[in-house]
Amino acid sequence: MNHRQIIGISGVTATEFLQGLITNDMNLLASSSTKKNPFLYSLFLNAKVEIWKADDIDVWSALPDHPSHLLTEKKSWSEKEVSSDKLLFYAADPRAVPGWSGRMLLQAGSDPFQIFHPSDQSSMDTEASADLYTSARYRLGLPEGSRELKSGDGLPLEANADLLGAVSFSKGCYVGQELTTRTHFTGVIRRRMMPVVVASPVDASCAVPNAPIYRLVATTGKRQGKRPIGWLRGVARRTAVGSHDQQLGIALLRLADTADAVKSGDLLWSRLSTIDSLPDEATEVKHLEDGVILRPFVPSWWPKDIAPDLPSNLQ
Fold first, then answer.
1. Other C-beta atoms lying within 10 Å of the C-beta of residue 257
2. Is residue 299 assigned to a domain?
3. Residue spans of beta strands (DSSP E) within the chain
4. Residue 284: helix, strand or coil by DSSP?
5. Low-confidence ranges of the chain (pLDDT < 50)
């Protein structure tokens, strides 16, 4: 995973420093000290960090052999000893979502296939590209990185951090804690990051992050409403995931507006540009091929009450 790196923070006040910058509770790591590899999922809150590449460490990810499986069902990912001084860290991702991954940190140049128990390598028996990782992540609606989680534009709960156990509502003050907690306890989360199917293949490199998504009346092609229904945050290259080979993306969508559009048979359409090229509701999109039609769907692991009026599988 050349697109992923690690950072290290050390010092007597490192825990206190991070406690004020992340949504989760650093004390959970201390309480997990009995585990072989304690692992915590969290979001940084508007913290600008310069990342230096660790040339002596490789970052790997392992995906289960089927989108409905949990990686922890494999014996090789249970909490047992793996005999190798080249394996610095391994654990299933704390986002315990069926179909999702585990992480490994290896000494640079090491082969993970030679480290894990040879009788149980079915969860990691094929080396795949970063495109497969991205497609699997989008299929599950798991945003990552500054291109998808834009600083100053979105709340942790809109990134599904509450559903993934990434937010502590009891640890006390941190950056943005008051707004995050109030949003949680009022139960009003109007927007969420969720997967979309790109109806016709596009060059993923041409997709501009945060491109507006509009609701178009299917029969006329006219824009419905004065504001975007959402924003397209990423498009993956077309890669087969399980039995599906659609091109997938991830978008921040207004849930109620999206559900109403789907119910009415209207289209979700984006020009793959950050320029608002539809200035008013009277504008008609005469050539849908100038952009892409997007079909949202609810990830398989979401609770049923999050978006009950939206389709719950790939179509």
1. 19
2. yes
3. 57-62, 87-92, 102-107, 191-198, 211-216, 230-235, 247-254, 267-270, 292-296
4. strand
5. 34, 47, 49, 51, 79, 120-125, 243, 279, 282
What per-residue confidence (pLDDT) applies to 42?
84
One domain for residues 218 and 100 = no
Q: What values do phi and psi take at 143, rounded to 5?
A: -75, 150
Number of structural domains, the chain?
2
Is 153 within a domain? no
33 C-beta neighbours (distance < 10 Å), count: 7
Collapsing DSSP to helix, strand or coil, 218 comes out as: coil
Task: Round to whole Å and give the CA distance between 223 and 279.
Answer: 9
Task: Answer whether residue 179 is part of any domain.
Answer: no
What is residue 296's predicted lDDT score, i.e. its pLDDT?
96
Task: Please give the residue range of the domain that contains residue 14.
Answer: 6-140
For the whole model, what pTM was predicted? 0.78
**Can you give the pLDDT at residue 14?**
82
Task: Look at residue 294 in the predicted model and tell me its pLDDT.
Answer: 94
Q: Which two tokens stand for residue 114?
A: 């030679």
Question: Do 129 and 217 reside in the same domain of the chain?
Answer: no
Distance, CA of 237 to CA of 246 (rounded, Å): 9
Paired residues of 268 in beta bridges: 215, 294
DSSP at 51? P
Percent of the chain with pLDDT over 70: 69
Which residue is it, tokens 């970063």? 130
Dig out the tokens for 252 from the structure.
Answer: 């921040």
Instruction: Report the pLDDT value the prediction gives residue 108, as an integer from 0 to 100.
Output: 86
Element at 148 (helix H, strand E) = helix 145-148
204 shares its domain with 124: no
pLDDT in the model for residue 257: 95
